[in-house]
Write a structure and sequence with these properties.
7-stranded mixed beta sheet, globular, alpha/beta, about 625 residues
């Protein structure tokens, strides 16, 4: 039975999902399945955009028949010839003998290579900027070579402002009943798989992806229809921003990815000690045993993190097999712009470090940190200082590390610097505002930070008067802002925003001791930038106090997008508890607290988030 989805009045999804596929392209595990998207435009002419993989073509043909009804199929636009999208073309051509195949000349060649059927008399050849009028709709063809294969093109429907993007903007994962990215929590549940899809499928072709994005940037896009994964109709720019970042090979986040290949656990031991020491220095770490974790996940993580450590046993006088395969994969995917450190192990002739180094020399802009740390069989007490030195050397390459201190590694004090790109991370977002008074550290959540002047670099912040942090800033005249990102979980807002520092030590459970040059603490997790400022003026503003302050230090922590207030409301804040039937009262629009009463005094303050009566609405 057919299972189709209406996308617009004229456009229908006629694709299918596959949850039985073990390995996509024979290489990439797809535990969440995969969708093969095909779209039917029903205008004066009917136009099908691509077909599906042979594994799901039975459902596809049922879907197409249902969407067409008794109409013929006039055109098939072939945007990509990889068989996961083209397998059904021959049968389609048999079923709809008058159908014209719209494609470019490279596609025509591949059609003749893949299929034993008459092609040339059926094709309608298009090239860059050619158009096809189908009645109400005009389709524009844009060549996108190597946005996976050389023949790839994308199509822009200028009538409905839809970009049919071929493999670009796709993701692993079956659709599970949803069609649009805004129907699911994409950032939380699907972004990792979108990154794994991008890096492994088109990661090698970042330059070509950037070229396509540049071409597409001149047209208005209301919807993106990729060949895998969800259709995008909201927050398109957020996903495009991820593609711009991934295509540039710049890391998304500062942190260390440690990949190790260990035969009897001794190389793993060195990696564990290093990871532990990095965490003590407040640096985010992720670890992978390359013999266990699928390479596609590690390639994806390598694109995400700024620093990479490879620790490998020596095997047959070479690199351990699983590590060698991973390094080959990373080189093939064009990994670049990373800081790398190496650990090698060997009982009689350790050699893996130098051999990894030889391979990485093919990659652009790889900063190899110091010399390879060599282990002979197992880590000895005398070698702990070498691991500590590696942790310190990694720490020293992180931004804003001048005033980070650990018990065993006091950093050399440096003059604080203002990194200007950090200032561009300010949005109408959410921030952890921190201050210090004597031995007392405290922080709260604020939502208003504005850069008001660029010389000197000056900001204005608004702080609710009931906040304890406000009193500390009034006393000391100094504060820090940790700019929160979209990955920030609700617990951070709860921790810093929904309890008072008067009776709680909000830093009691935060193990890292990150402080900027002014000695004030800041958050490294789920932030993308840190700003330190000195107050020059304050003024009363009703419920809030405004501070005008000079920025004295700023540094970037990650390339993750800053969280906006809207993003917080849509994706992070738990939905308010539904009131019981018959309950009367007022609900706080900020935190969802329900005040059960027929009246709400004008001076009422929410006991959870401290917002006033103006932020409540009647149930
Ligand atoms: Fe989904 Fe490059 O094929």
């Amino acid at each position: 039975m057919h299972c189709i989805k209406k996308i617009t009045a004229d456009l229908t999804w006629v694709g299918a999902n596959d949850r039985r596929l073990a390995m996509f392209e024979g290489v990439y595990s797809v535990p969440g399945g995969v969708s093969y998207n095909s779209y039917l435009l029903t205008d004066e002419k009917t136009v099908l955009f691509d077909t599906v993989d042979k594994a799901v073509q039975h459902r596809f043909f049922e879907n197409l028949a249902e969407a067409l009804g008794d109409r013929p199929l006039d055109y098939l636009v072939v945007q990509h010839m990889e068989p996961d999208h083209s397998a059904a073309i021959k049968e389609l051509a048999t079923l709809y003998p008058k159908m014209k195949i719209v494609c470019n000349t490279k596609t025509q060649t591949m059609l003749n290579q893949f299929f034993d059927m008459e092609i040339d008399s059926r094709v309608h050849i298009v090239k860059e900027k050619d158009t096809l009028h189908t009645g109400k709709h005009t389709l524009h063809f844009i060549m996108a070579p190597m946005v996976h294969w050389p023949e790839v093109m994308v199509t822009y429907d200028s009538t409905d402002k839809i970009l049919f993007s071929a493999d670009a903007f796709g993701a692993f994962g079956a659709l599970n009943g949803a069609m649009f990215a805004d129907e699911v929590d994409f950032a939380k549940d699907y972004m990792d798989e979108a990154r794994r899809y991008y890096t492994n499928i088109v990661g090698k072709y970042g330059t070509q992806v950037q070229a396509l994005l540049k071409k597409a940037s001149v047209v208005e896009i209301d919807m993106i229809c990729p060949l895998h994964g969800f259709v995008w109709r909201k927050n398109i720019q957020e996903f495009v921003a991820k593609y711009l970042l991934w295509g540039s090979y710049e890391p998304e986040e500062y942190g260390v990815m440690i990949a190790y290949a260990s035969i009897y656990g001794n190389t793993e031991n060195a990696a564990e000690i290093l990871s532990s020491q990095l965490r003590d220095r407040g640096i985010k770490t992720v670890m992978f045993d390359v013999s266990v974790t699928p390479a596609s996940e590690i390639v994806s993580a390598a694109f995400r993190w700024s620093h990479l450590v490879f620790a490998s046993a020596t095997y047959n006088a070479g690199i351990f097999v699983t590590m060698e395969s991973l390094i080959n994969d990373l080189v093939a995917h064009n990994i670049q712009n990373r800081t790398v450190a190496l650990i090698e192990n060997g009982s009689w002739a350790p050699a893996s470090g130098g051999l990894i180094l030889d391979k990485l020399e093919k990659c652009k802009n790889i900063n190899i940190l110091g010399s390879t740390l060599r282990i002979k069989s197992s880590v000895k007490a005398a070698q702990l200082s070498e691991i500590t030195a590696m942790a310190d050397a990694l720490l020293a390459t992180f931004p804003g590390t001048a005033s980070r201190k650990t018990q065993d590694s006091p950093n050399v004090a440096e003059e604080p610097v203002i990194d200007l790109p950090t200032m561009t991370k300010l949005t109408y977002g959410l921030f952890v505002l921190t201050a210090r008074d004597g031995d007392k550290d405290n922080g709260c959540i604020i939502d208003t930070v504005l850069q008001t002047c660029d010389s000197p670099i000056r900001i204005t912040i608004a702080v609710r008067k009931v906040n304890y942090t406000l009193n500390m800033i009034l006393k000391t005249g100094e504060f820090n802002l940790s700019i929160l990102t979209e990955s920030a979980p609700f617990r951070i807002f709860e921790h810093f925003g929904l309890q008072s520092g008067k009776n709680t030590d909000k830093f009691a459970d935060i193990n890292d001791e990150n402080r900027t040059a002014n000695g004030i603490r800041y958050l490294l997790e789920h932030t993308n930038g840190i700003i330190s400022a000195k107050v020059i003026e304050s003024c009363d503003c009703g419920t809030h106090k405004l501070f005008i302050a000079d920025v004295v230090q700023a540094f970037t922590v990650s390339n993750e997008p800053s969280v906006t207030y809207q993003y917080y409301s849509d994706h992070i804040k738990p939905k308010a508890t539904l009131p019981k039937e018959g309950m009367s009262g007022f609900v706080c629009k900020i935190c969802g607290y329900i005040h059960e009463s027929d009246t709400l005094p004008d001076d009422f303050i929410c006991p959870l988030c401290k917002h006033g009566a103006a932020d409540f609405e009647k149930l």
